[in-house]
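Field log, afternoon session.

UNIT: design team B
ACTIVITY: writing a sequence onto a fixed backbone
BACKBONE:
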């Protein structure tokens, strides 16, 4: 019953529209298969079938709906012939109407969209809005009123894609800002590291007590971070007892590595210490292989050969070679490898990271180092050495100590902050470039004599470190990501 009422209402609306002469012309121009549904038998509202003999096929707009609607021609003609016009229509069409030209609407101006009349693959009783819009425009004679016409599917798709375009345009400045921030991190990291190494070597030349020097570096960093937390410049970490327990082995390894590197720089040139420390990837692979049981592809082992060979060549040809300095750099490499392993195993899932992580690491290392520094050197030795250094250098020596202590913390803090922004591979490459800048700057400032063979060994070792980082990223990326 509801369906019959709906069709009766549609039939009345159709006959009212047909009273207009313009609508009559439009109806004559319409194809027979665009007649409204009440002119068609109900069996033609079924899903589409393959066209058979004696059927008419209406092809759709290929961009909007590639499907086809197939209607029996004989049935359509019979249904159209069986429709009897109303009395009003018969009276209006009794007299032959004079021919009047149909003025089509003007072409759309530049920048406007043309009107598309497309019939999709849906049944015809879902196309009332298309027919009603066409009849209304033809009856009113308004050619330029295109606002009421539905937008073509292509325009709708374009409009739907605009949020993605806007999001991409908004993401471009953010990506550029992130790259600029990473560039600033790298430049600051390298500059602070170069300054630290220069002042650290100056202090050790005048005050050869590496244990106290290491202790002052950790104390300065701890004081800076405590002041930052107290003044809310930095948000204090939410560290519980489990965090400090997990951090303790990391802090032990960090303390050993820091002191060993300082001992090395007190005995040999800064450039030589960093050449030996560039062999840290070899220690990382070997320790992971023999202590953790990890297996690496053959290209990883081959990439270690230039690192080991370059370090050996630089050590053999070093003019001011010292075994204590050489072993200090080697122990530092081993300790920092274990620091990374302990951090990987114990600190996974902890909420403290970046700047606060390094601050907590420095504080625990300070507590661990303090009794050992007193036992190894002691206050009496420090007092005598301090007086001698001040007498030889003058008051500038105090500023040297302060500078090396503060810059040690700052360069490590920036390196941990940059590690939060970049991948471990990029960090490894940046660390290699950092060593190059330190080696070159120390040779220029301290005027260390360098033989060509020694320089060749250093270049081979550093270039081998770069090759290693590229090889392991391609053949075993899980290893460097985990570190």
């Amino acid at each position: 019953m509801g369906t019959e009422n709906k069709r009766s209402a549609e039939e009345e609306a159709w006959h009212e529209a047909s009273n207009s002469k313009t609508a009559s012309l439009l109806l004559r121009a319409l194809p027979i298969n665009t007649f409204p549904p009440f002119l068609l038998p109900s069996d033609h509202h079924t899903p589409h079938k393959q066209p058979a003999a004696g059927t008419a096929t209406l092809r759709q707009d290929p961009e909007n709906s590639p499907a086809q609607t197939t209607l029996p021609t004989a049935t359509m003609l019979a249904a159209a012939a069986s429709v009897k016009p109303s009395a009003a229509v018969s009276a209006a069409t009794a007299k032959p109407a004079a021919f009047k030209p149909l003025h089509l609407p003007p072409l759309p101006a530049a920048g406007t969209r043309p009107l598309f009349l497309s019939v999709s693959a849906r049944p015809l009783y879902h196309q009332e809005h298309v027919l009603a819009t066409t009849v209304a425009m033809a009856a009113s004679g308004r050619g330029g009123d295109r606002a009421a016409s539905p937008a073509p599917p292509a325009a709708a798709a374009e409009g739907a894609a605009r949020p993605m375009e806007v999001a991409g345009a908004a993401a471009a400045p953010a990506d550029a800002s992130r790259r600029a921030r990473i560039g600033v991190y790298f430049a600051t990291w390298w500059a602070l590291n170069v300054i630290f190494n220069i002042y650290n070597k100056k202090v050790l030349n005048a005050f050869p007590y590496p244990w106290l020097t290491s202790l002052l570096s950790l104390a300065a960093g701890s004081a800076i971070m405590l002041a930052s937390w107290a003044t809310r410049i930095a948000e204090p970490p939410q560290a519980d007892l489990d965090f400090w327990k997990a951090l303790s082995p990391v802090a032990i390894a960090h303390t050993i590595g820091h002191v060993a590197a300082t001992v090395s720089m007190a005995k040999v040139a800064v450039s030589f210490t960093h050449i030996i420390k560039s062999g840290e990837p070899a220690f990382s692979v070997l320790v992971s292989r023999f202590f953790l049981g990890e297996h690496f592809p053959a290209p990883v082992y081959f990439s270690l050969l230039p690192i080991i060979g370059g370090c050996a060549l630089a050590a053999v040809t070093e003019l001011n070679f010292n075994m204590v300095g050489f072993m200090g750099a080697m122990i530092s490499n081993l300790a920092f490898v274990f620091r990374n392993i302990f951090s990987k195993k114990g600190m996974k899932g902890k909420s403290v990271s970046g700047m606060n992580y390094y601050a907590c690491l420095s504080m625990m290392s300070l507590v661990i180092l303090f009794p050992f520094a007193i036992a190894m050197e002691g206050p009496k030795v420090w007092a005598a050495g301090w007086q001698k250094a001040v007498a030889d250098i003058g008051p500038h020596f105090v500023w040297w100590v302060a500078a090396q202590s503060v810059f040690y913390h700052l360069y490590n803090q920036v390196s941990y902050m940059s590690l939060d922004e970049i991948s471990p591979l990029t960090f490894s490459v940046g660390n290699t470039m950092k060593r190059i800048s330190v080696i070159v700057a120390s040779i220029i400032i301290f005027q260390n004599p360098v033989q060509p063979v020694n320089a060749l060994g250093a270049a081979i070792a550093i270039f081998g470190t770069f090759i290693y980082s590229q090889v392991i990223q391609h053949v075993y990326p899980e290893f460097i990501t985990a570190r």
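LOG NOTE: Residues 153-206 form the longest helix (54 residues).
NEXT ACTIVITY: expression trials, pending approval
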